[in-house]
Design goal:
The complex is a heterodimer of chains A (294) and B (333). Chain A contains 13 helices and no strands. Chain A has 294 residues and is mostly helical. Chain A has one domain (33-292). In chain A, α3 (34-49) packs across α8 (132-161) and α5 packs across α12 (245-251). Chain A is globular and about 65 Å long. The two termini of chain B are 33 Å apart. Chain B has 333 residues and is an alpha/beta fold. Chain B has two domains: 6-247, P-loop containing nucleotide triphosphate hydrolases (Rossmann fold, 3-Layer(aba) Sandwich); 252-315, 2-Layer Sandwich (Alpha-Beta Plaits), CATH 3.30.70. Chain B has twelve helices and 13 strands. The longest helix of chain B has 18 residues, at 191-208. Classes of the chains: A mainly alpha (294), B alpha/beta (333). The A-B interface holds A 1-3, 5-6, 9-10, 30, 33, 35-36, 38-40, 42-44, 46-48, 50-51, 119-120, 122-123, 125-129, 287, 290-294 and B 12, 14-16, 36, 38, 40, 67, 70, 73-77, 79-80, 91, 93, 95-96, 98-99, 101, 103, 108-110, 112-115, 119-120, 122-123, 125-129, 155.
Chain lengths: 294, 333
């Protein structure tokens, strides 16, 4: 059989609005095996607990950059305010950011490419459970292990550095969905990038780019409100702020009602795109994978 | 005859592989424009397998065995042709299909590495939605058959290769699949572990009626387990039938073993060996000759006349030799 014939015998790929959504429906259909998914999470968690110290060290590493910027801004602010934020408010902002950054960081996506490269995807594809569950399970298992390290550290830092935060029930109520959406956005944005490993061998370079952009534009180097002109506009429009900074800003009371509504709209928009791209990459990727062999 | 559980029609798989010569220049050139070769891994193979059969899929490295298995378990789309397994098209990979099959690979693991096997089995049981009571019962039976009670509490990474293989089999069987694909299940195992696994597979097949399609490079696996073999080579099906008849069909020769009178130096008798008989082994006064199957009666008669023979047997060549010949030379005649 020639290549041309091969091409013909495969279903043509139709680009259309319905393609990602039907793929998404398919994922949902094969993953309504919630018991299986939950068991996988518990299993992964149990294996990860074997390596507590390793993950604690990773968590410590991730905590360092925000901690440095906490100290930089808190020192710079001293007794006065910068961009309307006092020393204590910077401390509160960065302590919240350490936790939010940890909760939304998707370390799992780094391993998705490896699974594809080393042919371990075969094992996952043969289970009557969507492989996305494998990623979600280590994702959830990871959160528990990392937070077991981060929470006590942040509490101790809070006792030492005296943050200034005016929590209102409204802020907390808006913070929770924003946090959940931030995690979903960061996870699925990384997931579709990771799935490029179906085509390119070292797609994880793109994950490193994402990490850099998050560092710059998501409120880590500085709160987004303090970013200068063009950078500020970019941060507000691009998805990265909505992966980390947005929920932190809500919690620390920096977002007004209009900004809140707008922020949620942009966050949801990017999330929809990330979900669509993930489903599309998955469908096309598996098709390619099963055409060329894992 | 009932409907076949596995049926394969004109199944083909062609890989498109980028090619380039070695060296920097070629590497740069391939960045701009790639050239591809078509590799015909599997070409128009046909076979059917009934429920409960144990079939050996044999062939040299690169013959297309694993490609065939991967298509049947749904990991690969074929380039052409059809396959139906348990009423499903494998590569649609429907959950209902995946629950009916199991693929056990000698070199890949589905155990969670850092926790005891029992925990992995529970997770896998949940993934396959096995009710807890049935899971316990199935596990007890498997542990018993495989004699592995003592392994259950050690983390998988502390287990030996053979112990791990036992775990892989349990992991592959705890959802009670109707069909099992086994790819090199005894790879790297010591002789006694191989024997125990073979005994287990035979017994399990007898008890559960599971259909088994097995690839192995150890002919002993195939001899012990598979009354029927499918031989593929260069992606083509060369033989499908009883293992016992393979020699007849594939090796159109017989081995004649001759013992001569004591003390007769063999060199003196070389002249007495009839034309058409090829000496493949000479050891003291024992000779092994290879003769064409059809010429065997005539040549043995001549041998008895011309040499001081005290013992003579005519036999089919050992299966390994036949397979080796097929692998080396392709089919004869």
């Amino acid at each position: 059989m020639t290549n041309q014939q091969m091409g013909k015998s495969r279903k043509p790929f139709v680009v259309g609005a319905s393609a990602p959504f039907s793929a998404l429906k398919r994922i949902l259909r094969t993953s309504v095996n919630l018991r299986g998914g939950w068991a996988l999470i518990r299993g992964t968690w149990a294996s990860w607990l074997q390596y507590r110290s390793f993950f604690f060290i990773l968590a410590f590493g991730w905590m360092i950059p925000p901690l440095i910027y906490l100290l930089v801004w808190a020192t710079a602010a001293g007794g006065r305010a910068i961009g309307g934020m006092t020393r204590g408010e910077f401390v509160a902002y960065y302590l919240a950011l350490i936790l939010v950054n940890q909760i939304t960081y998707s370390q799992t996506n780094w391993t998705v490419g490896d699974l594809i490269r080393y042919g371990q995807m075969n094992r996952l594809l043969m289970r009557p459970l969507h492989p996305l569950f494998d990623a979600l399970s280590s994702e959830l298992a990871g959160k528990v292990v990392y937070l077991a390290f981060d929470l006590p550290v942040v509490i101790v830092l809070a006792l030492i550095l005296r943050p200034e935060m005016h929590l209102t029930p409204g802020n907390v109520l808006a913070f929770l969905p924003a946090l959940l959406l931030a995690w979903a956005l960061r996870f699925f944005w990384g997931y579709w990038l990771a799935l490029l490993a179906f085509w390119a061998t070292r797609a994880d370079a793109l994950l490193a780019v994402q990490d850099s952009l998050v560092f710059l534009l998501a409120g880590q180097v500085a709160p987004v409100a303090l970013l200068p002109g063009l950078l500020h506009s970019a941060a507000v429009a691009l998805p990265f702020r909505y992966m980390v900074g947005f929920p932190v800003e809500i919690l620390t009371g920096q977002v007004d009602p209009v900004g809140l509504a707008l922020g949620f709209a942009v966050q949801l928009g990017w999330l929809a795109l990330a979900l669509g791209l993930s489903a599309l990459m998955w469908r096309q990727g598996v098709r390619r994978y099963s055409a060329v062999g894992g | 005859m009932t409907e076949a559980q596995i049926s394969v029609q004109s199944l083909s798989k062609t890989y498109r592989v980028p090619v380039r010569a070695g060296g920097l220049k070629a590497a740069l050139k391939s960045l701009a424009r790639r050239t591809y070769n078509d590799v015909h891994a599997v070409q128009e193979i046909n076979f059917t397998i009934q429920q409960g059969e144990m079939v050996g899929l044999i062939g040299p490295n690169g013959a297309g065995k694993t490609t065939t298995l991967k298509m049947l378990c749904g990991l690969l789309h074929p380039s052409a042709g059809q396959a139906h397994v348990a009423g499903f098209v494998p590569w649609e990979r429907r959950p209902a299909y995946l629950r009916q099959i199991s693929m056990v690979l000698g070199n890949k693991s589905q155990m969670l590495w850092d926790i005891p096997p029992l925990d992995s089995f529970r997770v896998i049981g949940e993934i396959y939605s096995v009710p807890p009571a049935r899971l316990r019962q199935t596990l007890d039976e498997l542990f018993d058959l495989l004699e592995m009670a003592e392994l259950l509490t050690k983390p998988v990474r502390d287990l030996s290769l053979g112990e791990r293989m036992k775990c892989e089999l349990v992991a592959g069987l705890l959802h009670q699949p109707a069909i099992m694909f086994l790819d090199e299940p005894t790879l790297g195992l010591d002789v006694s572990m191989q024997l125990r696994l073979r005994r287990f597979l035979a017994e399990y097949n007898r008890r559960s009626g599971v259909t088994v399609l097995l690839t192995s490079h150890y002919m002993a696996d195939v001899l012990a387990l598979c009354p029927r073999v499918i031989l593929i080579h260069h992606g083509k099906l060369l033989y499908d039938g009883e293992l016992g008849s393979l020699a007849q069909k594939m090796a159109p020769f017989k081995l004649v073993r001759v013992t001569l009178e004591d003390g007769r130096p063999l060199t003196e008798d070389r002249g007495g060996i009839p034309a058409g008989a090829e000496v493949i082994e000479a050891n003291g006064n024992h000779l092994t000759l290879r003769v064409a199957r059809t010429a065997a009666p005539e040549i043995t008669a001549k041998l008895l006349q011309s040499l001081p023979v005290v013992d003579l047997t005519v036999e089919d060549p050992p299966i390994e030799a036949v397979i080796d010949q097929v692998y080396q030379e392709g089919v004869q005649g």
